[in-house]
Amino acid sequence: MFKHIKELQYNAKPTQPDPVYAKKLQEILGGQFGEITVMMQYLFQGWNCRADQKYKDMILDIGTEEIAHVEMISTMIAQLLDGAPARDQEEAAKNPAVEAVLGGMNPQHVIVSGLGATPTDSVGYPWNARYTIASGNLLADFRANLNAESQGRLQVVRLYESTTDPGVRDMLSFLIARDTMHQNQWMAAIEELEQAQKAIVPSTFPQNLEKQEVSYSFMNFSQGEESAQGRWASGESMDKQSNFEYVANPEAMGQIPQLQQAPAYIHNSPDPTKPAPPNMESANYDKQN
């Protein structure tokens, strides 16, 4: 059950309207790494969680907080659109859509949402559930969550740097701080899971069933050997099961593929080494030959 209260989690009050910045702010609302994405990702991970209750509770704690962040950013966008279109309103009223385009704002903020936020990114692409990850494997999901928070915090910081509005920066500084906590939170949960199980996902797959001779080989498939200097090329592997091996000139280990000629009715390019089929209905010819 969810219960809404009127107060926002934190203030979302711009100092002055800025329809162009409202368009930019849509990215951290409805973009791939925006608040709608992490909200839905965490909620479905929590609802589907079959592991220890503490993980389910933690996931739903943060998922529910992300609903509050969606509300904050939506409120900020709506207030940034106050006073839009960007130039004189009396002149704009003659054709607000044209005025919106000329002013650099998102015309859908005028035409579609009536000066409100939309579940889209900064170029108007609709939010997509395919952005979300909820696999049922906590270690895999928590690593995805860490990535989402890392990318999300990066985008919020870039938006912070692209405005001087004290009110907008105040809200963004709160979101940046919460993303700091959330990255730490997922790293702590990942560390705990890695200590309880193998670091490689899924940990339940028998390792003797994989081609172990290449399990810890870093293969140099590009020009130069600078990559040999990395932690991934020598020393103990991260899962502590073996040592990394650097392969400077990896050799092909597979066959040369040779595909059979397609049936005549597919009408692929004919095999030049074979006689052309007789001029008859291809389906019948295929059955007879």
TrEMBL record:
Binding residue positions for Mn(2+) 1: E35, H69, E149, H182
SUPFAM superfamilies named in the record: Ferritin-like
Recorded coiled-coil stretches: none
Recorded superkingdom: Bacteria
Cofactor note: Binds 2 manganese ions per subunit. Binds 1 Ca(2+) ion per subunit.
Alphabetized GO MF terms: metal ion binding
Cofactor(s) required for function per UniProt: Mn(2+); Ca(2+)
Name of one Pfam family that matches: Mn_catalase
Name used for this protein in its record: Manganese catalase family protein
The organism's taxonomic lineage, starting at the top: Bacteria, Bacillati, Bacillota, Bacilli, Bacillales
